[in-house]
Amino acid sequence: MSLLKGTKVTWLGHATVLVETAAGLTLLIDPFLQHNPSYPKDYVLPEKIDYVLLTHGHMDHTADAVPVAQKHGATIVGIYELTSYLTGKGAEKTIGMNLGGTVALPGVDVTMVEAKHTSSIQEGDQIVYLGEAAGLVLTIADGPVVYHAGDTAVFSDMKLIQALYKPELAILPIGGHFTMGPREAVLAVEYLQPKQILPVHWGTFPPLKGTPEQLASLLPDGSIVARVKPGQSL
Ligand code: NI
Ligand code: MN
C-alpha cells in the first residue's frame, strides 16, 4: 500500500499492532499475546523487536510487555509512571516520557498525546494507578505518520493531533464499552482526517460490540476503513 510508503503495519488482535519501517526498525505497540483471545496463535514475531510502545497500564495492553522485551531485546517506551513500574517488574531497558513530548528513536519520532481513559494495573485486590492513559503518534522518516489512539473516548482535542502531526493512518478503538464505539469514532475521523483507519479493540471480548462494518457505514467514505484479520498487514 503506497500510503504507508514501505512501512508494514500488522494487526495482532485487540490493540496489539506491529510496525516495521522500510528502514528496518521494528516496534510493537501494546503487546497482549498469550491471553489475547484474538491473537493469531501461529503468528511468529520477528526475532528482533527494537521497541515495545505502551499506551497505558491496563493488562490488555501490557500483559506481555516485559517478557517480549526480554526475549526480543526491546526497549519499553511509555509514560513515566508505567515504565518505572515495569522496571520494578524486570524491564531492563525503558524510556519514560510524558504527554506532549517526543522521543527520537532511530528513524521514528514517537510523540505521546492525550487519551481520555484510565491507566492502572491490578495487584491482588489492589488497583495501582500508573499515570495517565495516552495515545502515540509515530512520525516515520520517509514514511507515514501513524497514530495509535490507545484506549480512548472521542475528544475534541484530536483536532490538535491533526493540526500538529497530520496522521495518515489512524489506529482507533471502536469496540465500545471501555472505549469509544463506531458512533463516536465517526467524529474522531472528522477531527483527525486520516487517509486510512485501522479499527482495533473490537471483537476480542463479548462487550466490545462495535464493528468495522458499522464504522464504515457511518462514514462519508467507508472505504478508508481497513478490513484485516488478526495477523494480516496493511
Ligand atoms: Ni484500557
Ligand atoms: Mn483496553
Question: Could you explain how this protein is built, in words?
Answer:
With about 230 residues, this protein is α/β, with parallel strands linked by helices. It has a single domain, classed as Ribonuclease Z/Hydroxyacylglutathione hydrolase-like (Metallo-beta-lactamase, Chain A), CATH 3.60.15. Helix content is about 20%, strand content about 25%. The protein contains six helices and 14 strands. It has a six-stranded mixed sheet with strand order 1-2-3-4-5-6, with helices on one face. Strands 7-8-11-12-13-14 form a six-stranded mixed sheet, with helices on one face. Helix 5 (about 180-190) packs across helix 6 (about 210-220). The chain is globular, with a radius of gyration of 16 Å. The model has no long low-confidence stretch (mean pLDDT about 95). The structure holds nickel (II) ion and manganese (II) ion. Manganese (II) ion binds near residues 60, 61, 151, 178 and 201.
Q: Which labels suit this protein?
A:
single chain, 234 residues, alpha/beta, Metallo-beta-lactamase, Chain A, 6-stranded mixed β-sheet, 6 helices, binds nickel (II) ion, binds manganese (II) ion
